[in-house]
Amino acid sequence: MANVSVYNMEGKEVGKLDLNDVVWNTEVNEHLMHMAVVSQLANKRQGTQSAKTRSEVSGGGRKPWRQKGTGHARQGSIRAAQWVGGGMIFAPKPRDYSFKMNRKEKQAAICSALTTKVAEEKLVVVDSLDLKEVKTKEMVKVLGNLKADKALVVMADKNDNVALSARNIQGVRTALTNTINVYDILKYDKLVVTKDAVAKIEEVYA
């Protein structure tokens, strides 16, 4: 069973925490993590791009010159792709880029990503995150104490003071346990998780 240190907001170690091996020490499946990242990015795409093919461009119904005897290459329409103002070959059309992953695949991908952070010693567990007011300077100080300047901060419950204090810090993002995803876990250098959030994550994914 993996064992990590628990820190307070001053960056001092205040205890130890045993992590559930099912979540934090599982077999890393790089293929599923790759699928999860590609799926998330693909699902964000609007897919509204569109261009006209030669059948959709107006004009060009008449053959520009006769087939033989002119010295020109034969042409059937002035709206073919090689003409200025012509249609596009294989023009992009609106489409849906999204694809789905099974629930167990998503779960395994997240556990793999969490395990990666533990293996790389980039998981920081905090006993609590409690800011008395919205203050970016205070949040920067806390992250500095934890040596996590670029981090994904995961909380068990909604905390507006923390979320609003962190939203203007470059390289920092906050999330709740039910909104974490593989892309964000892998993107940020450190994973800062409150002790309560660890328990919630284990409750969901174990």
Which bin fits the share of residues in helices?
25-40%
CATH architecture of the largest domain: 3-Layer(aba) Sandwich
Mean pLDDT: 92
Could you spell the SSE succession in H and E letters?
EEHHHEHEHEHEH
Structural class by secondary-structure content: alpha/beta
Secondary structure tally: strands: 6
Overall, the morphology is: elongated
Model description:
With 206 residues, the protein is an alpha/beta fold. It has 2 domains: 3-45 and 99-205, Ribosomal protein L4/L1 (Ribosomal Protein L4, Chain: A, 3-Layer(aba) Sandwich), CATH 3.40.1370.10; 47-96, no CATH class. 34% of the residues lie in helices and 15% in strands. It contains 7 helices and 6 strands; from the N terminus they run ββαααβαβαβαβα. β4 (151-155), α5 and β5 form a beta-alpha-beta unit. The two termini are 13 Å apart. The model has no long low-confidence stretch (mean pLDDT 92).
Give the helix/strand layout.
Elements (H helix, E strand, L loop, with lengths): L2 E5 L5 E6 L2 H4 L5 H15 L58 H17 L3 E4 L9 H10 L5 E5 L4 H7 L5 E5 L5 H6 L2 E5 H11 L1
Parallel strand pairs: 1-3, 3-6, 4-5, 4-6
Antiparallel strand pairs: 1-2
Helix pairs in contact: 2-3, 4-5
List keywords for this structure.
206 residues, alpha/beta, Ribosomal Protein L4, Chain: A, 2 domains, 6-stranded mixed sheet, 7 helices, 6 strands, 15% strand, elongated
